[in-house]
Design goal:
The structure is a homodimer of 372-residue chains.
Chain A lengths: L1 H8 L9 H19 L4 E2 H8 L3 H13 L3 E6 L9 E5 L5 E7 L3 E8 L4 E8 L6 H19 L3 E8 L3 E2 L4 E2 L13 H9 L3 E5 H11 L6 E6 L3 E7 L2 E3 L29 H10 L3 H19 L3 E5 L1 H5 L1 H19 L8 E3 L6 H11 L9
Parallel strand pairs in A: 4-7, 7-10, 11-14, 14-15
Antiparallel strand pairs in A: 1-3, 2-3, 4-5, 5-6, 8-9, 11-12, 12-13
Chain A binds a DNA duplex (30 and 30 nucleotides) through helix 2 and helix 4.
Amino acid sequence: MDGVNRTRSGRPGVAGANLPAMRSHNAALVLDLLRTAGEGGISRLELAERTGLTPQAVSKITARLREEGLAGEAGRRASTGGKPATVLRLVPDAGHAVGIQLDRDELRAVLVDLDGTVVAARRAEVDLGAGAEAVLGAVVDVAGELVERGGDSLLGVGVGAPGPLDHTHGVLHRVTGFPEWDGFPLRDALAERLGVPVVVDKDSNAAALGLAVGGEGGSFACLLLGTGLGAGLVIGGTVHRGARTGAGEFGHQVVQLDGPPCHCGDRGCIEALCLAAVARGDLAEAARVLGVGAANLAGLLDIDLVLLGGRTIAAAPEPFVRGVAAVLDAHTRREGSLRTTVPVRLAPGGGQGVAEGAAQLLLAPLFGRADG
Amino acid sequence: MDGVNRTRSGRPGVAGANLPAMRSHNAALVLDLLRTAGEGGISRLELAERTGLTPQAVSKITARLREEGLAGEAGRRASTGGKPATVLRLVPDAGHAVGIQLDRDELRAVLVDLDGTVVAARRAEVDLGAGAEAVLGAVVDVAGELVERGGDSLLGVGVGAPGPLDHTHGVLHRVTGFPEWDGFPLRDALAERLGVPVVVDKDSNAAALGLAVGGEGGSFACLLLGTGLGAGLVIGGTVHRGARTGAGEFGHQVVQLDGPPCHCGDRGCIEALCLAAVARGDLAEAARVLGVGAANLAGLLDIDLVLLGGRTIAAAPEPFVRGVAAVLDAHTRREGSLRTTVPVRLAPGGGQGVAEGAAQLLLAPLFGRADG
DNA sequence: TGCACTTTGGCAACAGCGTTGCGAAAGTGG
DNA sequence: CCACTTTCGCAACGCTGTTGCCAAAGTGCA
């Protein structure tokens, strides 16, 4: 019921609940289970078990969802000695969202349905330094086409951009290397031109949201190493952004007191050490530095999983995954506690993870996955 | 409604809501506002505004709370041109909890009422190395007296202990320096001897919870420097513990690659660097190291506040607060963003913050502040 | 002093939520 | 063919917050 609460009062956790709030909370819950079940579907009784609601309540809720066109029947399961269960499914076409990754030199856009399936994809070259008009024009071109294709079921456009930025207002801050964007109201500018709701978030948060919705449970960190180094943090199933969308500033974590200077003005930042190692071809050292940062993060937050992504890692996944895992492994072993090593994996989604996650900025709220 | 959800299904965020859940959610919300209002009290209409509920709903809810003895009238406010508002207050004596700080060499216990006011306090010397029987005996002695004094309104006993431990089962892990406690079921042992519900958590988490309930809003970190160095993390008003109660492992964050060895087996940990600096009397350097760790944490989580506590800091607060603030300040200035510097303060509560927070492990759930 | 007005807050009727009681539908298995 | 199991909806119900309304208790002006 959190999502509703937030919407109503602005101050999280301080809002009362009423019947409509309860209703949409439960509907979102059921919808999320339907989505998670995927093509296999799920029966009403299973839904009842998983939600803790009575079967009768589930029947009423699914009936409403079917009326709204969000859910539908999809055959029946084999009998287990009685009347066979009717399998319910999400109707993927009932909603769509466009997701955009706006990077420093390229633009990726996808049209995604309720299921999370990519229905269409576009890619274009851009230059963030070419001025707002040119960049916005490119975005509107690419997105507009997909928006149209989404038709009536289009919920809006999500944008993942390099930070820092303010996701609540959709305003960019000083993007590293492109100070002219500082203060640019990207969300409102796009919403006006496209005529649909727009949500803007950091690229790393979008990627993390996509993975969380995509099935990664619990708490995890998604580390993106590309032109910069950022982290998307998922804590207990929801993306943690902090009050100023500042969370996930992973690249400028200091891991070497009085170390080599970083372009940020500090010394010994992970990003500086890591990029320097990559530049001289020493991927093992880059991975080790990344691993130390990941171990710090894992220890501080007690997360369940580390996912690696971004262009640099996509170019040579193996040494990074292995190197980071080695550091985490050594760390766990030293602790000697009961806990098993934090697993490290390559973030799925190929080069399109951020764009897909950005689409989830619009879709996730339907499933009760608050975007706050 | 989260607290209720968690209780019902065990799997957070996956539980349906029903009328009783809604009812207790709203009751907890109102109760929390009554508590926060303190001695000044709060009127029904103010409650309605703050919760988003209708005045009528608030009237019904407060009537129930009054029947249960949890709330009461406390005079009236001056009229603002109409009927003067009736001021409502929490009845502090309606509930009590005992909070215990079990440290390596001492024991502190407090009896706290619903308001958070300390009604009684005890202190005793213990030696964690003296064996379970002796330690448990001491705890039962001190706590038993306070439990009895709490009478019928006693909700239970909360214990803050040095980590690592498992707070969901109340089992200690390998307490640094005292390996014999590894696997000891402290919660169940105490619950059996005292005959009341017991909750066990890390000392730093208890301190953080106490501060969160005590009025610190938003997200903050509570860093405790004593015989060890730990952090309690409050994210969006709730203590973040992680799935294994492992979160807040702040002391072994590595801030100096290949730095001096730490007793944990790693190198360059904050704790090693910090304690070494303290040992040679260089508090400025200790504060700087702590500051770097705090800046890392603040950047990663985008927190609003850093609070410093623990014995070492209590002994000389000023250089630590100043030193940590200096590092955070420099860090913010470099970012050049709109955000203001993360403030650093001495954690209030004197030497008794952990014990008071431990009591809140029992009280906080009443106010809808989930302990998960 | 009296009357209009504002503000507080409870009573009563209401709509809507999930729950309970129960029975129909649709299978399996002896 | 019949007993049994399992699924699942209809109907009545209890309880939630909401709405409509009115009494109570002040202020302020004539």
